[in-house]
Amino acid sequence: MNRQLLFCALGLSFAAILPLCACRGELDERHSGMEIPAQSEAFEDVSVTAQPYAAPTEVVTSVPSAEPTVTPEPSPSPFPGTEYMPLTYEEKTRLVNFDNPLPEDYVPRDLVSAKELLGDVCALRKEDSLIQYEVGLRLRELFIAAYDEGMGEYRVCDPYRTQEYQASLWDSRVSMYPDYGKNPYEEPVGVMPGNASEHCAGLAVDVCSTAHPSLDVDFSSTAEGKWLIENAHRFGFIFRYPADKTHITGVKCEPWHIRYVGIELAEAMYGSELCLEEFIGVNMG
């Protein structure tokens, strides 16, 4: 039975192959009489001239260095969120008086709006006044500490003044008193020339209070005045013109006039009974 099936399969295979073979034979007969053209007739003779060898152009691709050059950033300001830098020791201890005037074109650096820096912690006589940034920052700390200890509202009357404005104050006094300021160490003054005022150096502030808005010696008898006398040094301020030093400073007693010298120097001067001229002469002369 299996052999019969095998032969039947082989028979079918040959039956499928035989027609293909016949077809191939017919194709061979058809092409046997065709002429094949010579190679010279089928293709044109193309002459090829040898070209000199050219080395391939080298393509240079820039490769970044492993450690790219980094432009150094400026040192950050110690006052967060600002570009202002601290006053130098020389700036803070600068002596400004009749014998040590400022250059005529001197303007302190880092002047800012007193209203923006202090407007929420004190009253201002002039809302458009300017104040040196570090001076204003320490004054702000002073006022906050005073309020925490129960003091009333303080009032800033004059921080920075231009030399032109200060000179106008001086000229006004001289016009009323022709001999004004001619011998300040014997007849101390209440107004300094434009180039001899610490206000123009950006280091002085006139302070009183809302309860006592006048700049006079009675301020020192008020609660706010007493607190200021006892605590100003903690924030870098000194009382610049004591009553017993007028023969040295040439200025009348001004308990409202505080001068910024920095915490280190202010604490060293506190209780020394020396004015700035004396302290500088003894310790820095």
Q: Kindly provide the name of the CATH class of the domain at 89-283.
A: Alpha Beta
Low-confidence stretches: 1-50, 58-63
What is the molecular shape?
A: globular
Strand pairing plus helix content: what structural class? alpha+beta
Helix-residue proportion: 25-40%
Determine the strand fraction and express it as a percent band.
5-15%
Helix tally equals 10
> How many β-strand stretches?
7
Give the SSE string.
Answer: HHHEHEEHEHEHEHEHH
CATH second-level architecture of the domain at 89-283: 2-Layer Sandwich
How does the major sheet shape up? 5 strands, mixed
Give the CATH topology of the domain at 89-283. Muramoyl-pentapeptide Carboxypeptidase, domain 2
Question: Can you summarize this structure?
Answer:
By secondary structure, this protein is an alpha+beta fold. It has a domain of 195 residues: Muramoyl-pentapeptide Carboxypeptidase, domain 2 (2-Layer Sandwich).
Keywords for this entry:
285 residues, disordered N terminus, 9% strand, two-stranded antiparallel ribbon, five-stranded mixed β-sheet, Muramoyl-pentapeptide Carboxypeptidase, domain 2, alpha+beta
Structural account:
The chain is of the alpha+beta class and 285 residues long. The protein has a domain at 89-283: Muramoyl-pentapeptide Carboxypeptidase, domain 2, CATH 3.30.1380. It is built from ten helices and seven strands. The strands form two sheets. It has a five-stranded mixed β-sheet with strand order 2-4-5-7-6. The longest helix is centred in the first third of the chain and has 30 residues, at 2-31. The termini are far apart.
